[in-house]
Amino acid sequence: MFDLRRNLVPDAYAPCVLAPMMASKLLRVALGHHIKADEIQRRLPNAVFMQMPQLSKKVSVVDFAHTAFGKTCPFPVHIDDEGVTAQDVYIIKDGQRMDCITNRVTAAEMSLPLTRKARVDSNGSAPQISIRNLALLPQSDEVPAMLDSIKEGFYLVDGSHSEGSPKGEYVCLVTIGYRIKNGQICEKIDGCGVWGFADDFLQSIAMVGNDFSWYPDEHSEINGINAAVGSPTIRAGLNIGQVF
Questions:
Q1: Could you tell me which of 154, 196, 157 has the C-alpha nearest to residue 179?
Q2: Strand stretches in 7-127, DSSP E
Q3: How far apart are CA 102 and CA 158, in angstroms?
Q4: Is the separation of the CB atoms in 196 and 181 below 8 Å?
């Protein structure tokens, strides 16, 4: 399926603390592709988003239009490229699936709310459905408590080559990571990757931090539409293995 996936030897399912940069990358590949109405329309009745199970009440995801937490978002959109006033959209609220993202055509065809997500890339093509500022909302958990909760696991700071499949599988190379032993960050790990399925990853989120950071969407280079993804530190379970 993916080159990285074929070269990754599964090792173990482990509890992990994901720093905001790594968490945002996994949030993007777990959700960003699957919450678009046109993708859902292509894959009904097997669309990943429509089958999403109930998650922890700590999990809330919003695609912000232009303002979040009292500040301007990295890529503010006040009016989308179909001329519709932009608005914030809850994707997941308190663990419950809410709205996918639509444009005029998909909203009418699928009898869904118009969520004002039409955007044009730099080449001026027809408007596409795209995220703008996708964020996992911070909660009250503190990073030291997340680390203390893990006897044997991993602290993952950053990754690259993150990809997701139409069936909900994701994969990401770990570029900066460490082992956790008895709640302490220990030696650095090299040559590792994480993989799994979107719903399993989202269901495994047990703690959500009170910090938060935005990052440019690394997939913007592919579709030519600028966007941002943000997350607090989280505790989740991941399949982790060696890349050869």
A1: 154
A2: 8-18, 61-64, 67-68, 71-72, 89-93, 96-97, 118-119
A3: 30
A4: no
Burial profile 172-200: b = 16 or more Cβ within 10 angstroms, e = fewer? bbbbbbbbbeeeeeeeebeebbbbbbbbb
What is the DSSP track for 126-190? Answer: S-EE--SEEEEPP-SB-HHHHHHT-SEEEEEEEEEEEEE-TTSEEEEEEEEEEEEETTEEEEEE-
CA dist 83 and 79 (Å) reads 6
Segments making up each domain of the chain, as ranges: 3-243
On whether the CB atoms of residues 30 and 22 are closer than 8 A, the answer is no
Q: What is the DSSP string of 12-25?
A: EEEEEEE-HHHHHH
CB 232 within 8 A of CB 207: no
Q: What's the gap between Cα 211 and its chain centre?
A: 16
As a whole number of angstroms, the distance between CA 20 and CA 209 comes to 9
> Tokens for 25?
């990358």
**Tokens of residue 163, six digits:** 């990809």
Gap between the Cα atoms of 18 and 156, Å rounded: 5
What single-letter amino acid sits at 162?
A: S
Answer whether 0.70 is exceeded by the pTM.
Answer: yes
- Residue-by-residue pLDDT tens, the chain, 244 positions: 445 555 555 568 899 999 999 999 999 999 988 999 988 998 888 899 999 999 999 999 999 999 999 999 999 999 888 888 888 999 999 999 999 998 888 888 998 888 766 777 656 667 788 899 999 999 999 999 999 999 999 999 999 888 888 888 998 999 999 999 999 999 999 888 998 899 999 999 999 999 999 999 987 756 678 899 999 999 999 999 887 6
